[in-house]
Write a structure and sequence with these properties.
The protein has 438 residues and is of the alpha/beta class. Helix content is 18%, strand content 35%.
Amino acid sequence: MTFTRTIFRRFIRQDRGAIAVMFALMLPVIVGFIGLGVEVGMWYKERRDIQTAADAAALSAMFEKDGGGTSAEIDAAATADATRNGYDATTDTIAINNPPLSGPNIGDDAYIEVIINRQLTTLLSQIVLDTAPTAYARAVSGISGGDDEACVLALSSSAQNAISMNGAGSTVNMDGCGVFSNSSHASKAVNIQNGTFEVDCIASVGGINEGGTISTSCGSTKTGQPSMDDPYSAIDVPAYSGCDQDPSGNQAYKPTSSDPDLTEGVYCGGITISSGETIFMNPGIYIMDEGDFQVTGGGTITGTGVTIILTASDGSGYGTISINGGGTINLTAPTAEDTSGSIQGDYTGMLFYQDRNAGSSSSLNGMVNGNSSVELGGAIYMPENNISFTGGAEVGSDGCLLLVAQEVSFNGAADIDNDCDIYGGNPLTYGGTPGLVE
């Protein structure tokens, strides 16, 4: 019995020694996993910190963009707000992408993506981790809300009278839409000097002069608004070559009532509808290469599914819109359901498009005047120049008319509707505020 007890005690002593050795070998791993557990909690906190920084940066960038900031100013604003909220350039990297490079809004420059990466610090967890982990945070901002619709948008960021009305007998009625000015002019970004102005709302980045008779359904005019993005900024002139009509010396093509049908194509020198002529435009894209689209002296022109593009193949001699002297015009843009001619895609809803490469010049301003009778459907887009309705011009549409130019002025009558569903809806929406969308 005594011998057996002695052997048992020796076994116990030997087992304890083995456990001690095993424990000594396992101790670093145990410590590493304990450290990993503790540090994971710290890493989650750092992840939350850089997410806060990314959110702040994305919002700040969108506020800067919405205020008309340049790309450099947007990046600077985002980085500054990220830094104020925990971003550290010594341990972190930041990427500011406009448009986003990932996610559901990829490629859309109405959104800004901010990505922050941080190299995390490892202490005891180094024992079980070969490389230090990286924390990742991403935020995307855009304009949220904005369900108010405009039929007139003045793109100029600083002009006095960017939207104006000056005529004692002038009357402008807009059914279901308002006007919006991107101008920051302190007192007259919108200047209603006299006449009657009946619209859903008058909104502006800058000040509004409320002369004349103003009637709105939004309660009061709105100043200090975030600027509105140009909804047609991505649209460009289609590729083309040669001339389908090229009168000698690049003179305007002058159709006559004896051959009244026009077909889509390239009109070098533009088109002039002269006094007494009655002309029909078949559906399609009409390119005015180095010439105006002009209706003069009582000329009449009608057409549906029409897009008229004012451009210049050699970069000079751009044209404009000119409707004078009692002319009658009844034109509508391609609808979303049109299949005639080359009118689908980017040009749905676009009636007149003046090439943005034309630059700004008083000679390129569009004009409808002289007691003209005009029925238009679609958008008139002159991103670098102005359009005016003067001299008793009566402009109206049974459906949708959108005016987007540097400046828009009325010194006559206009009756504008906002029934734009046939064109896929009205893209001139405002009233939104910068917010996080992802």
